[in-house]
Amino acid sequence: MTILLYQTDSYLRSFDATISQMANDNLGIILDQTVFYPGGGGQPPDSGKLTIESKDYTVKRAARQRTDVIHILADEVPSLQINIPIKGEIDWEKRYQLMRTHTAMHILCGVIFRDYGASVTGGSMDPLKGRMDFEFDTMQKDLVQTIEAAVNIEVENARLVKVSLLPREEAFQIPDLIRTKINLLPEGIKQVRIVEIEGLDLQADGGTHVNNTSEVGQIRIVNYKSKGKINKRLYIELD
Ligand SMILES: [Zn+2]
After folding, report:
1. Is the pLDDT assigned to residue 76 strictly greater than 90?
2. What is the pTM of this model?
3. Residue among 107, 209, 100, 190 at smallest CA distance from 152
4. Cα of 52 from ligand 1 centre, angstroms
C-alpha cells in the first residue's frame, strides 16, 4: 500500500522513496510512498520524473492500482532491485495550477449550494480551467455575473482550506457531507479525508488543494450550458 504524501501536504514537490514493485513490463514502478497524485475526483494525475541510480526517468502520469500508486514511465527501465532508494519530483507548475483550479471548483460548489441550494453532480478540470455540473433548475444566463462576483468575494475573503482524516462513522455524522454523496464510498474505506473551506464548503475528497482561497486568484465563469431542465454545466477559468 503506497503512502500518499500529498494527502497530508499537497505542497510537497519532491520526495525520497524506495521501489516496492516493478510492473507493466518495467514501464511501471510502485514505490513505498509518493507525492504523485494518481488522478480522481475530476483532477488529472501528476507527471514528473524519478531519479534512479543517478538517471532520470520521465513519469508520463501516475495511476491508481488497487491500494497502490503506479508511476507510468515514458521509457522502460532495466530490471531494478526492489527496495533500492530513489528520488521523485512532480511537474510542480502543472500541479499548482491544478491545486488552484480544484480549490476554485470547491468555492463555486460552496457558493452555489449556499446561495441557491443546488447540489453538484460531477466535474472535471485541466490546469486553470474546469467544468462543473449542478442540479440547478433555476440557473439562467442573468445569474452568471452574480455567481462570478460571489465566488470572487470568497477568494478575497482568504478563507482557510483545512484537511483532516476522520473515521468513517464520524464522517457519516456530518450533515454537510451527505449532499456530496459520501454514502457512495466503498465499504472498505475506514478513514475519510475531509476537505473544508472554512465557513463555505465541506467535502469528502482525496485531491490536492491550496491552503487558502486567496491563492486561487480571479475566477471567471466563461460559459454555461443547459444539459436538460434540471442539469446545468458551468465553465470556469483562472488567470
Ligand atoms: Zn477537492
Report:
1. no
2. 0.94
3. 107
4. 32
